[in-house]
Amino acid sequence: MTATPEQDKLCKTLQALYPNLTDEEMIEAREKIDTYIEQTMLQYERIRQNPEEYKKFLALTSRDSSGYDESNQEPVITQLPPNP
User: Which among 2, 7, 41, 5 has a CA at the least distance from the CA of 27?
Assistant: First the structure.
């Protein structure tokens, strides 16, 4: 099977970050990254299907937002202050 350009880029990045990985370790790293990406996409799809959750997601990921704050008794999510 031929690797996609994205897979080639990921392999080159892993090799640059971890030049001492064996072929087996490289395969394991790729599999773990693929699993992580799958899980992240599943979470995003779940959030995307729920309008309230998606509203919170957008507030938390907005560049000009200070976080999510709802005026009722719901838990408040705010951005963490930057590290000193």
Answer: 7
* Pair 68, 56: CB distance under 8 Å: yes
Q: What is the pLDDT of residue 7?
A: 75
Report the distance separating Cα 70 and Cα 73, nearest Å. 8
For the entire predicted model, the pTM comes to 0.58
Q: Is the pLDDT score of 12 beyond 80?
A: yes
Whole-number Å distance between alpha carbons of 48 and 18 = 35
Give residue for tokens 């000009």.
Answer: 64
As a whole number of angstroms, the distance between CA 64 and CA 68 comes to 12
The stretch 47-54 carries a mean pLDDT of 91
